[in-house]
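Customer escalation, tier 2.

The customer says the design service returned an amino acid string that "doesn't look like it belongs to this structure." They asked us to rerun it and document both sides in this ticket. The original structure tokens are below, unchanged.
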């Protein structure tokens, strides 16, 4: 066989070897990426590849799994019974990933609960400097309170949650206008949830004291914490 045909065959085999190497390399790289993705985001994958997890990413970002969905539905079922055939609204004094007004509103779909009930869940104030005084709280007949009090920021940034919840749980100041109903719900992380019913109008003196308390914390935000009962 002449030198030229041998060289052609050699070059052809070399090209095939390089092509195969690239294919094997890319395939292996993709497999490693998929393994890392699965290990990071899928708990079952992490367990399955436990023996080689030292070769893979150490970070874990598993999706949140709730074990208290039935309790969330129990809260809504009771609210449905309490607000049926009346115009009474509901305010949620909680602001964490365990409980907040959005969680109940999203769980309260017309397929599961009447839309009339879902629409009675008022928007909560969550962040002091952004939302100001929680005026929707004044319009609610039922208050949902969690113990321990639920925050998603520092408590010092969510006094519109913490101060009101503390007064209701301890029946002080504005809390004297509410009574605890005979319901208790247990959510994840040992969070207890209670329903309070307004039994009398909140005294103006208590509202003024609450307003002044907020203003002492935020003197430069007086306009959004000043009580104005004619405000919508």
């Amino acid at each position: 066989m002449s030198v030229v045909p041998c060289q052609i065959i050699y070059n052809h085999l070399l090209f095939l070897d390089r092509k195969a190497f690239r294919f094997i390399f890319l395939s292996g790289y993709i497999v490693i990426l998929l393994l890392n993705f699965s290990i990071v985001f899928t708990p079952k994958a992490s367990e399955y590849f436990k023996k080689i997890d030292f070769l893979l990413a150490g970070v874990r970002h598993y999706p949140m799994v709730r074990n208290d969905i039935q309790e969330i539905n129990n809260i809504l079922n009771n609210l449905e019974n309490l607000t049926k055939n009346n115009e009474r609204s509901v305010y949620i004094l909680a602001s964490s990933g365990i409980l907040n007004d959005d969680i109940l509103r999203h769980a309260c779909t017309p397929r599961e609960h009447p839309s009339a009930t879902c629409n009675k869940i008022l928007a909560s104030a969550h962040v002091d400097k952004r939302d100001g005084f929680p005026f929707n709280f004044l319009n609610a007949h039922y208050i949902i309170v969690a113990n321990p009090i639920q925050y998603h920021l520092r408590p010092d940034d969510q006094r519109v949650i913490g101060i009101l919840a503390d007064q209701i749980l301890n029946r002080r100041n504005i809390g004297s206008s509410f009574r605890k109903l005979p319901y208790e719900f247990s959510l994840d992380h040992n969070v207890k949830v209670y329903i309070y019913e307004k039994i009398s109008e909140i005294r103006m003196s208590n509202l003024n004291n609450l307003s002044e308390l907020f203003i002492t914390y935020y003197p430069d935000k007086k306009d959004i914490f000043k009580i104005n009962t004619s405000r919508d």
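Tier 2 assessment: The sequence is consistent with the input. The longest helix spans residues 3-41. The chain has two domains: 3-55, 69-225. Sent an explanation to the customer and offered a walkthrough call.
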